[in-house]
Amino acid sequence: MRTQKRCMGYVAIVVDDYDRAIEYYTQKLGFHLMEDTPQPGKRWVVVNPNPESDCNLLLAKASNERQAGFIGNQCGGRVFLFLQTDDFWRDYQRMKDNGVHFCEEPRQEEYGTVVVGGFKFEVQR
């Protein structure tokens, strides 16, 4: 009997512009563009930090003012996503060199080295 693996497949991130979001996630954060498929009135845009990962970010363009209000504030001001890496300092320095804004300096916690990034998109009107 085959068992079904359960995992988080997609986490939707509300953005104001597909192309700006793709550029940010791929060029600044080093994610991979997995899919960019046009659909009626929208696009199915998927990125992830590792092509072998089962968890993907779905970049979803806000379709109204209410949704636009959540851009850059997906989780009410709390840390929303946690990116794990096998080399913290390599990835931190690369992101910093690419213009990623961090809200603090890296710090050591009992579970590892951490830093909070401010991955915010401003709504363009």
Walk me through the structure.
This protein is of the alpha+beta class and 125 residues long. The chain is 20% helix and 26% strand. It has 3 helices and 6 strands. The chain has helices spanning 18-28, 65-68, 88-97; strands spanning 10-15, 32-39, 42-48, 56-61, 107-109, 112-114. The strands form 2 sheets. It has a 4-stranded mixed beta sheet, covered by helices on one side. A two-stranded antiparallel sheet has the order 5-6. A hairpin with a 2-residue loop joins strand 2 and strand 3 (42-48). It is globular and about 45 Å long. The chain starts with 9 loop residues before the first strand and ends in an 11-residue tail after the last strand. Mean pLDDT is 88; it is low at 120-125.
Q: What is the fold's blueprint, element by element?
A:
Layout: E1 10-15, H1 18-28, E2 32-39, E3 42-48, E4 56-61, H2 65-68, H3 88-97, E5 107-109, E6 112-114
Parallel strand pairs: 1-4
Antiparallel strand pairs: 2-3, 3-4, 5-6
